[in-house]
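Justification of resources, computational component.

The compute hours requested in this renewal are based largely on the per-chain cost of generating structure records like the one below. Each record pairs the submitted sequence with a full structure-token output. That output is archived, and it is also reused by downstream analysis tasks.
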Amino acid sequence: MPLRLPCVPRNISPGLLLRPYWPGGVFPAPDVTTFLVCGQAVTWVEAGVDTRSDYVVCASAAAHRLGLTLPFARQAAYSGAGGVQAGTLSFPPDGQVGLFVTDFTEYCFLPSQPIGFHAPSSNAHQQRSVLGMTGFLQHFEFLLAMTAATPYFERRPGPNFPGQTGPLPKGGLLIDFVRALYSSP
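The structure output for this chain reads:
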């Protein structure tokens, strides 16, 4: 079964060029609450699905909430917004941080993917988290249904999915289930 999630309605500010192209000044964005797990620490970020992002990237505050100290030795440069914004991402060793997504019916857990973190900054509240190609989208068939009455997106794990996936068990706390996935071999 695929994970099926509704697109989040995003308001477009009056006066912006995009506004007249979207009825009511709202466009549906494929965003998902994404859980990060490191040992027994679990936190979440709202992450946009971004096919133009090379990596999975999370805000520096998420690393802090997991008890991680930035920067890590493994780093990569990035640029966005047509090259206007640039910076350096740092990546913990693969497997130190796991990635869990669910629609509360099905789940997918990727225990050992590259997950980058923005550098700590005084503007950390403006950092965006994204689920990009390497470490996430490369493992899924992805459908974006923008013309549906309620726009949604689906992700179906590919045949060589490198993690765990299945129906989300009923009963118990989600955080306990996520911790158990991370600690299982």
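The radius of gyration is 17 Å. The mean pLDDT is 91.
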